[in-house]
Design goal:
2 copies of one chain form a homodimer.
Chain A: H1 7-25, H2 32-39, H3 43-49, H4 53-77, H5 87-98, H6 106-122, H7 129-152, H8 161-181, H9 188-202
Helix pairs in contact in A: 1-2, 1-4, 1-6, 2-3, 4-6, 5-9, 6-8, 7-8, 8-9
Chain A binds a DNA duplex through helix 3.
Chain lengths: ~200, ~200
DNA sequence: CGTTTTCTATCACGACTGTGACATAAACAT
DNA sequence: ATGTTTATGTCACAGTCGTGATAGAAAACG
């Protein structure tokens, strides 16, 4: 029997409002009142589903991380093993895969913008520090899986795996950072070209 | 005859307070009142030397950009031309040079933290958007000078200069970003190792 | 000296913020 | 039906903010 309202759905709806606000006007513009207005709700309703502002923020950040993680996981399942591919095919496939993390369209741009805002805010906000840590480790772990796979195909010396993972993670974050903040300096096409070039050079 | 107070020195003193606050507690914690307290001044004094909050912010960001630029320029003058160096020496020299941009000690960490805060804030704050644009173009121009010099020594194909500049700029920003936000995931030593590895691979 | 400019300090105002408290209403349970 | 949980809405409070206005002290000037 259905409840009057689906609380989980409501919480997701509110989190969406947070993300829209944060992407458009920055985290600074996210308050309980602005979130309620953006979600078309009363501030009392927002407070009914969350313990307070911190809870809202945590949930919104948690949702974003989970969404990106799930999308990457889904993509990962349809990846063909490196051993079946030529170097060019491998570069293409990895580029397309990692491009999920780059702000190459409106949706991914909003996502990346929000993540940058959250990660920077977490530097001085212990309330979300653990989520930021998880997110940044996640990027590194993802990069590490890729360099690991390359090493298994003898495309990379085993002792370079850790360092190349850090390099790839830094490149991904740097591209995302620059393209989110200054798309006119680092365009979508340049992001993609740089990523492909990097992966190609790794596979040489 | 000396004035009662040196206004330029006062403005610099206030800007320092802004930078300390922004580095320690984030840009969110920077208000006229907190800045005055951090500078050991009355809020009225701060307002005497600046038109308002925006003016303070602009001046603080301007100061930071100018300081980094001046330091790089000073370093640049003592660089030996690439033609006189072996590949290893060139990699060492460029690593040391570009390390000025990385948060490898307390001073550079504070600087990089503040810059990240400012750049992110500028995404939704038109008041400092031009300074952010200048800063991010600056990194790219710097990277471009390096890849240009490499191409002149036939270490890089001419058509790769622009793309490799973007790649180097993204790597620098990514390393800075990651090390500022999560030094326990991307340590100082790893920053340096990754940068050196990247430059070495470019010089091959 | 007096006058003027520079500097410091304080108050008040309106606009925000998160949150505690509470009233109302709607859906559900018994 | 009554009672109970769930949900929405409203008010008030203390805190913060930037800023306009103003006053008083201190230094510089004539």
């Amino acid at each position: 029997m259905p409840k009057q309202v689906d609380s989980e759905q409501r919480r997701a709806h509110i989190a969406d409002a947070v993300l829209r606000l944060a992407a458009r006007d920055g985290l600074q513009a996210v308050s309980l009142r602005s979130v309620a207005a953006e979600a078309g709700l009363n501030i009392g309703s927002v407070r009914h589903y969350f313990d307070g502002q911190r809870d809202v923020m945590r949930f919104a950040m948690r949702s974003t991380i989970d969404r990106v993680t799930a999308r990457l996981e889904r993509r990962r399942e349809s990846l063909r093993p490196l051993s079946e591919l030529t170097r060019d095919e491998a570069a293409d496939q990895l580029t397309e895969f990692l491009a999920e993390l780059l702000p190459l369209d409106a949706a991914r741009r909003a996502e990346a913008s929000v993540l940058v805002e959250f990660l920077v805010a977490a530097r001085v906000d212990q309330e979300i520090a653990d989520l930021a840590h998880e997110a940044m480790r996640g990027t590194l772990v993802l990069a590490r899986r890729i360099t690991d796979a390359m090493a298994r195909q003898d495309l990379l010396p085993a002792e370079a795996v850790a360092l190349e993972a850090q390099r790839l993670a830094a490149l991904l974050d740097g591209l995302s950072f620059r393209s989110v903040l200054q798309p006119e300096v680092t365009s979508e096409q340049e992001c993609l070209d740089v990523l492909r070039a990097h992966l190609t050079s790794l596979l040489r």
